Amino acid sequence: MWSSLPFDLLANIFSFLSPDSLARARSACKHWHECIDTCPLNTEPIPSQCHPSWFIALPLRAHKLCFAHNPILDNWHKLSLEFLPDLVKPIATVGSLLFLRSISSVVLQLILCNPFTTQFRYLPWPNIIRTNPAVGVVIQNTSQDSQIPDFKVYVAGGMSMAPQGGTTYESKLEMYDSRNDSWQIVGSLPVEFAVRLTVWTHNESVYSNGTLYWITSARAFSVMGFDVDSNNCRELQVPMADRLEFAALTSRNGRLTIVGGVCGEDACVWECRDGDMWVLVEKVPNELGRKLVGGSNGSWINTKCAWNNEVMCLYKELGNGMVVRRERKEKNKWEWVWIDGCSSIRGKRVHNLPIKGLLLQPSLAPFASKSNYTL
Q1: F-box domain location, by residue (predicted)?
Q2: Does the predicted model carry a pTM greater than 0.90?
Q3: Are 370 and 148 spatial neighbours (Cβ–Cβ below 8 Å)?
């Protein structure tokens, strides 16, 4: 019966499969292979609860590959990025796509790509050519599950050409809107903010209650916020800012959240409440924290965090393993678990590499659901 189903019905069923299941279905028989390759899959939004997010690890050094952890089967895959013309660094995820910046170019150039289908697209060049700015992403239709949601990209700080020659810290803030595929100047920053966003800020950002936040990369840590509607800037203090060995911004239940750790102590999770007050809400279980840092006196330095609404991962290098906070939907509660790192794939040893991790719900559908993204 399954081999005789019409393509449109079969494609609708295939649309509900996770990428690994879809890949296995593709190799089951000639009929299914032809259906998946030739018949457009259903692009209607499917609840994100159907498929948990995968952890995507990109080496920090210049490698054209990435590694993906399947949380259902608890195994790792290696994906080639040779299809990309440039070497890249990760910034964020946009729907089921990776949002990257080229490191083959000195000035800012941004790329969207699907590592599972090898599709990619360059975003248009910004109006201001700048180097080393902070980049923030705001997803517009957060209530929907789609492969490519509407999104905005904010670029702040960085160095640009000065009118008299040479370079200067760029104070103008520029925004890309995916709905019209164009950039516009939307505000300006105080010079001191532009300097700090250029020198001391990673690309990671968090959007919460109308404000885009970045955390400085130098101790003592601090948080800089930009209200996207009023164009106002503000600075927030970080709890235990001068003692934390690492600090990362996340969001929890829509609230701005910080996770950070001190040598010889548990990592903690703080939420920002009314009046910009930080409240300790949780600690990483002691035994899992020790396993990640290498003992009771281990250092949290070089720890990083990947997160979304369903998962938070604390990790260091590819082979070291991860401490993961995830939701158990059948019990409607959260739990902390350990995930082994990637040391081998199909019996072949994998070198331990410094990585940057992102959480993504993979898709094998082409990103042609909007004309702006048709390749």
Answers
A1: 1-46
A2: no
A3: yes
Q: b/e for 281-316, b at 16 or more Cβ within 10 A? A: ebebbeebbbbbbeeeeebbeebbbbbbebbbbbbb
How far from each other are the two terminal CA atoms of the chain, in whole angstroms?
Answer: 36
> Is residue 172 predicted with pLDDT exceeding 60?
yes
Contacts of 20 (CB under 8 A, 6+ apart): 70, 72, 73
Q: Which helix (H) or strand (E) holds 251?
A: strand 246-252
Other CB atoms within a 10 A radius of the CB of residue 108 amount to 20
Please give the pLDDT value at position 374. 40
pLDDT top residue among 253 and 37: 253
What lies within 8 Å, CB to CB, of 319 at 6+ separation is 341, 342, 343, 350, 351, 352, 353
Residue 333's SS3 state is strand
pLDDT: which is higher, 239 or 372: 239
Kindly calculate the radius of gyration of the chain based on its CA atoms and give it in whole angstroms.
21
**Is the four-CA dihedral 173, 177, 178, 182 of positive or negative sign?**
negative
What is the C-alpha separation between 146 and 130, in angstroms, rounded? 31
**What is the number of H-type helices and E-type strands within the chain?**
5, 28
How confident is the model at residue 15, as a pLDDT?
A: 67
Contacting residues for 124 by C-beta, under 8 A, at least 6 apart: 176, 181, 182, 183
Residue predicted with more confidence, 3 or 220? 220
Mean pLDDT of 267-279: 94
Measured distance CA(101)–CA(110) in Å, rounded: 4
Strands 54-59 and 65-70, how do they pair? Answer: antiparallel
Q: What is the mean pLDDT of the chain?
A: 86
